[in-house]
Amino acid sequence: MAISDIVAFAELPEAVRHDRALYTGCMAGASRVSEVEAMLRASGFTELCVAPKDESKSFIRDWAPGTDITEYVVSATIEAIKAA
In terms of pTM, does the model score above 0.85? Predict the structure, then answer.
């Protein structure tokens, strides 16, 4: 499996988690990297790799101008293998 998604690398403040604009923009509901890894392991995936793309902070900043959302989330490539 290989996907790209927004992940949290720090605990999201309550104000961010409850911001509807950030939530509908896939930022306020972002799972922590450790949570993503745990969900994948629990689903039987192995060889996990969650690779944050620091360069994504520039376009994420444009999604939520005037906020400090890039202090909490980043786009990441998520890869894992599941045996058949």
Answer: yes
